[in-house]
Amino acid sequence: MTALVLLLVIVAILGAGVAVGLSRRKRNPFTDQAFVTGWEQRMRALEASLGWRFVAEDQGFQERVPQIGRMLEADRSRVKFQLVGHWRGVPVLAVEVVLRTDNVATSAYRTYSVVVVPRPMPGPWVLISPREDSAWSLFEQFVPSGDPNFDARYEVRRRNPAFAGALLSSGLTQALLQDPRAQGVAIAFDEHALAAAVPAPLLQAPLGHLADLLLDLAGNVPWQALPRG
Prior knowledge:
Order of helices and strands: HHEHHEEEEHEHEEH
Helix content: 25-40%
Radius of gyration: 24 Å
Strand content: 15-25%
Structural class: alpha+beta
Oligomer: single chain
């Protein structure tokens, strides 16, 4: 009789555990759409549309693109969301970064989305930013490209004048002027990667267009003919 009572108690405990587990599963935001927030739903839709996935682990954004990471002050506390995947067979990283734009009187914040792809050949860095985006003017002084139409829309910052001059004269200035995907986009040729940045959160940024833009630019740059130093 004692054994039977003990068996019934064990069965009751197991049954209660299963019931609690099922109840929690129903409340799990990853299994029940009723408990998924609007942000989560939009992020899932973005993942599905791009074939990329949201990750919580640090992807080393600042190490991949040190120059643009420095300009966006993108330490780990400023990188809010990250997506990883492939685009046209190339590994891609997309991040949302919160940039602090301080001045003497106020502290303001702007959200940027940045898409990063590998650079076909490493070399000196060049940043091409929209003239109307004042966030980039906090850093190195820009230099004119020599193309008045290009200089009316973009500012160029670089460390190596010979490399930057050869890069811009390779057809890059006209490509950016004529490509609607480049409107309002900052393009960074970092040492080992290419990046495109726009002032918008990930859920609002045209991530696929930015990835296409970077890959198209990378495919049209005559890397072997550019100065290496």
